[in-house]
Amino acid sequence: MSSSRERILSAIRAAVAGAAPVEVSRGRRWAGPSGDLLDLFAERVRDYRAIVHVVPEADVPATVAKVLGARGARRVVVPGGLPAEWVPDLELVRDEPPLRPAELDAVDGVVSGCAVAVAETGTIVLDGGPGQGRRALTLLPDYHLCVVTEAQVVPTITEAVAELDPRRPLTWVSGPSATSDIELNRVEGVHGPRTLEVIIATHRPPSPSP
């Protein structure tokens, strides 16, 4: 195997001998749609069958209360470091000391933030930082409500990777957990939450009432 590899490399070196060096750019320019990144991100997340709300930042607490109320969700897990103003007057469950799997399975859901979000793929990345908690918090409950701020949305995976620390426990979320491994039938909730709901907090002013 090694001798074959060396023969191939030798042939390549001989073929390019004397050629002028070529500078290869390692950067990647955004070549996707020219529309607003938030609109693209919201569209891609919806494509994954997630529920999406795009609201001004000031409306995040009211939106959290509204969507959880619509589900009848009262006991929700809140990771440490989640902005207190995002969470309304609910029966909050803290992960201190760490909750057992059965306890996480029994709550109505989890509310978290994220580290970064990718417009091109509709992917949300969690790295265990403030407001995100350990991996089990967003994988075991059947419902995950994630707040994504406008500043966290980047165009592509390339920009997302540049923002992340590879030494941290990264979880890449593209819609609710689903698999079609069993007889090609889509089954949701196998590897994580059955329902993903996303609030995108923007700097835009609220739309005028009709």
UniProtKB/TrEMBL annotation:
Domain LUD: from-to ranges: 103-200
UniProt cross-references to InterPro entries, sorted A to Z: FTHF_cligase-like_sf, LUD_dom, NagB/RpiA_transferase-like
Gene3D superfamilies: NagB/RpiA/CoA transferase-like (3.40.50.10420)
Alphabetized Pfam families for the sequence: LUD_dom
Superkingdom: Bacteria
Name of this chain's protein: Lactate utilization protein C
